[in-house]
Amino acid sequence: MVTINKMREMLCEGFPEPQADLMARVFFSAHDELVTKAEFNELTAVTRELAEAQHMLANAQARTESRVEQLANAQQMLADAQARTEWAIKDLAKQVGGLSNALGGSLEDFACDLVPEMLEKYWQMEVQSAATEELLIGRRYREIDVVVRGTVAGRPVTVLCEVKATVSRKEVDGFLAIIERYRSLHPDEDIRPLFFGYKADRKARERIVAEGTAMVFTRGVMLPVPRS
């Protein structure tokens, strides 16, 4: 670092001592002032850069907050859409369930009207009643879609009718198993199964035919000859 004494010694080499001393003090004062201004300018530049950096940071933070807000809005929209979807699914399930119940109910009502007519026509059955009943089978009650009670050739006959829009082989097997359990509890009664619906698949029809069971569908009627 250059001191005032060092500067005076350098000036004395070419100037008288009083002049060298004055010039050293002037140059040293000017040097200190110049250094101070340079540092100030540098500090000003640094401050300006810092201000610009803070401004950039503020803009970036604002954009980040905007994106966070957009994300929150998107998540809320997604949650609302999901809630509407779940509600729509539940509403559709209710409608389908209601339609299924309505269809099942009307089909059973149709069976209550048509099956007795078919039994009267093909079996000459004198029908006494036709309605849905709960029968005790084993240890629990089971609802039978249509139970037709009456007589054939003067003897009591009970027809248990399973009503399905479309009858499958599995449903045929299940209902026939129920009939067998009920027959075992009432060995002295004439109990006959009957299937009623819009249609039955091939395997279901084959099982019904093999068992000699009655079947009434919109595409045809198959009633085996009553046992004598």
What features would you describe in this structure?
The chain has helices spanning 4-12, 17-122, 169-185, 202-210; strands at 126-137, 140-152, 155-163, 166-167, 191-197, 199-200, 214-217, 220-222. The mean pLDDT is 80. With 228 residues, it is an alpha/beta fold. The chain starts with a helix and ends in a 6-residue tail after the last strand. The protein has a domain at 106-222: Trna Endonuclease, Chain: A, domain 1 (3-Layer(aba) Sandwich). 62% of the residues lie in helices and 23% in strands. Helix 1 packs across helix 2 (17-122) and helix 3 runs parallel beside helix 4 (202-210). It is rod-shaped and about 160 Å long.
**Which oligomerization state do the chains in this entry correspond to?**
single chain
Distance between the termini: 136 Å
Q: How many strands, which pairing sense, and closed or not: the largest β-sheet?
A: 6 strands, mixed
- The percentage helix is 55-70%
Q: Taking Cα atoms only, what radius of gyration do you get, to the nearest Å?
A: 52 Å
CATH class of one domain: Alpha Beta
Average residue-wise pLDDT: 80
Please list the strands of the largest sheet in the order they lie side by side: 1-2-3-5-7-8
Overall form? rod-shaped
Pairing-aware structural class of the strands and helices? alpha/beta
